[in-house]
Automatic annotation (TrEMBL):
<protein>
    <submittedName>
        <fullName>TonB-dependent Receptor Plug Domain</fullName>
    </submittedName>
</protein>
<dbReference type="InterPro" id="IPR037066">
    <property type="entry name" value="Plug_dom_sf"/>
</dbReference>
<dbReference type="Pfam" id="PF07715">
    <property type="entry name" value="Plug"/>
</dbReference>
<dbReference type="InterPro" id="IPR008969">
    <property type="entry name" value="CarboxyPept-like_regulatory"/>
</dbReference>
<dbReference type="InterPro" id="IPR012910">
    <property type="entry name" value="Plug_dom"/>
</dbReference>
<keyword id="KW-0675">Receptor</keyword>
<dbReference type="Pfam" id="PF13715">
    <property type="entry name" value="CarbopepD_reg_2"/>
</dbReference>
<dbReference type="InterPro" id="IPR039426">
    <property type="entry name" value="TonB-dep_rcpt-like"/>
</dbReference>
<dbReference type="GO" id="GO:0015344">
    <property type="term" value="F:siderophore uptake transmembrane transporter activity"/>
</dbReference>
<feature type="signal peptide">
    <location>
        <begin position="1"/>
        <end position="21"/>
    </location>
</feature>
<keyword id="KW-0732">Signal</keyword>
<dbReference type="GO" id="GO:0044718">
    <property type="term" value="P:siderophore transmembrane transport"/>
</dbReference>
<feature type="domain" description="TonB-dependent receptor plug">
    <location>
        <begin position="117"/>
        <end position="226"/>
    </location>
</feature>
Amino acid sequence: MKKIVLGWLFCCLFLIGNLQAQVMNGTIKNNATQEPVSAVSIQIKNSTEGTFSDDRGRFQLTTNKKLPITLVVSSIGFEAKEVLVQSFSSPIAITIDPATMLGQEVVVSASRRVQKKLSSPVTIEQLSSAEIKNSPQLNYMDMIQGLKGVDVTVSSIGFTSITTRGFNTSGNTNFTQITDGMDNQAPGLNFPLGSAISLTQLDVDNIEVLAGASSALYGSRGLSGTMVTTGKDPFKYQGLSVLITQGVNHVRNSSSDDPVGPSPYYDWTLRYAKKINEKMAFKINAQYTRANDWVATDSTNKNGPGTKYTDPNYNGANYYGGATSVDITPFLQGALAANPALAPIINPLLAKPYYVARTGYPEYGYLDNTASLLKVNAEFRYKITPELEAIVSGTYGTGSVVYTNDTRYQIKDFKVGQYRAELKSKKWFIRAYTTQENSGQTLIAGPTAQLINEAWKPSYDANNGTGWYPDYTSALLTALAGGENFNAANLSARAAADQGRPALGSALFNQLKNTISNKPISEGGTLFLDRSKLYNAEAQYNFSDIVKFMDVIAGVNWRLYSLNSKNTLFPDTSGPINVKEYSAYIQMSKKVAHDKLSLTTSFREDKNTLFASPKITSRASAVYEVFSDNFIRFSYQNAYSFPSNIQALQNTLNGYNSYSSGGSSYLLNGIYHFNKYAPYTLESVQAYQQSGNASVLQKFEYTDIKPQSVNAFELGYAALIAKTFEVDVLGYYSTWKNFIGYANVANTPGTNDVTAFKDQSTYVQYNIAFNGSQMVNTYGYAASVNIDLSHNFLAKINYYSDFINNKNSTQINNFNTPHYHVNMEFGNSGFGKKQVWSFSTDLRYKPGYFYVVSGGLAAGNVPSSAVIDAQVSYKLIKTHSAIRLGSTNLTNKYYSTGIANPNIGAVYYITYAYNIL
């Protein structure tokens, strides 16, 4: 009987609770077009209760509050509105009015807290999901290059490297990319992975780019900027969205150097998100991109001014195999000793060193130019309380792209996974994640081609005195004796020595390439076996409820790099090398002078286990509101960056008789042992560096590599004028100390002995990372104007310049940027009947500039470029769809973003977009 009574009591209480809870339903529409509006916030005033409209503009909100209730309705791009609800009996129809976004953008990354972009203490650029949706570019990584102060290097479709303030190169280790709170870097190489494990095109909520040093809040290696990307919340952005793009590229024109020919371009993206109830939601994302990649065809001679027809020592930037270069003087002397009658021909050739390079292979036909990229993501969220949320997510990327560094790398079938668990509230978060990589079947273009040349015919076989160079020398003397001039004789000698050389795509060529590229570097091949991992845990707390007189944010971070390359990238013969980092930071901010002046200071301490001393990073800023929506900002930042794992510990085959080396004392003192194909420690040899005179070597003095640092000052002004003009101007000045670059050194002052070819250890060259002794200064300025022209027309223009002083001429510093950039945008987000038409156009102009490829691959002038992207779109409102027709590089005038990087032509495309109006 007691159980029956308790059961009835429970049922009654349950019914009473449900009678008290009321459900309101409604829809949100655009007042101008009567289209449903998704992701609109519907909040009960003075309450934490709220929800979002779904992809059809519908919402449902359950509450125990008594009528009447006031709802606060808000969304970026619309005017906020309050709605009085007096009954739950019928659906609520709400319309909201479009509003300008100028001056209303909010950012988080500038100070790790929400604030208006206008009042940010440092320069910050932003892309919203609406801007990404309306852009003519094919992906948001391409959109980044139109932002003020941003430089990019495009290695291939699918691999774009980003930086700010001039230090521009592929795989920039001084630029940080953060995706949903996770560092998007390769655990072993330490540079951001671009699109590999970033968000899919449909899942980006917003992107914020911090220009210049940002280490105070985001840690070491943020000296050249930070990009923070935030994914869409499945509670807010719901439903199924599809983006299908079909296009064509490699459309040749009369001036293009494109060997490929017209090829299809595919990009398919899908996103599905579902709010199961008020506590649980999930999302699933997938994107697949496939196309014939752009091809690098730079024929710049790295060994001098001549061409392959005039210089026997020709080594083209994108011709692989020519790095094997030998002074044939010993062979000429041997021929003279064997036949003194050749003296009239040979003696003139002995007047100076006579260097000859092996014949290189062009990139097209050598590297597979099929680019593909697949990435999938899943995320689950659970609201423990209205203000406390648990998140688990996983992202997996795989594919094949080409990357430029000391040579071109065909990264084939790479695999990267990133997995996160997080607890997040309004005041704090605890986050843990891991990044795990598999380098796949990466082919290193230069060394592989050199070893292919050695495999079909060695440069010199000391056992029988034969080889490519003896054949070349004999044929050269025969041609000269027959009366041929120097150039003709060289070509005849090369043709004779190249007899039997396997052609690109031949069975022998493919067999040699596969054998060499599938054998690990540690066994004499060129295959990376990088299986490095990164583990990270961090926490942050906002003390505003405890400390009343100022805003205080503090956090801690722990990171472990588990470097595991099987002795192909690092000297990890005995097992993975563990490198740990510890850091803690605090930020304090306060408003004074009647809240007109905002003062902020930040401090961060970082410790890396490869280096004895921790480093302190600091930032101080002041923002003064001169009058409404007009702000003057000033900031000082002191930032340190520990050398990357590559700069500290690399031990990699870089070519025939050539290696790349880190500069850490762990290598210099031989604490880590090198593989048998690099039997050295730098302290055990006499290393020499090439001077300005190519035939003279000077002693290279090396010490333990140290962290680099920068002191940066910035003064800026941002304003919104008459709610129509948004203006931002700035100037900056930075001083760099212990700048990290590379030098080419050798373990002997040179050799004239042909026996040097018997053993790779006899004469070995090294590309070593080191700190420059000079103080380097960089400075620049920038300005941007955004104009709301009314009726959904918007125009933007920005101009910026970056300069460097006192650079170390013996060091590759990667300051690759023109003296100025100009970017312009003009578009309309909705015109015509019911605003179903829209268009957008972009123009990016860069004058010509000098570019040096990291690792010494090549150097030269990049021609000026003017690139126009354009798109027109038509909405199919009844089917929640849109058709877009557009092009990147509309004029199809091929351009490149750096020496030895590919020539980029037009992509003409048509896109079907579902549920992303």
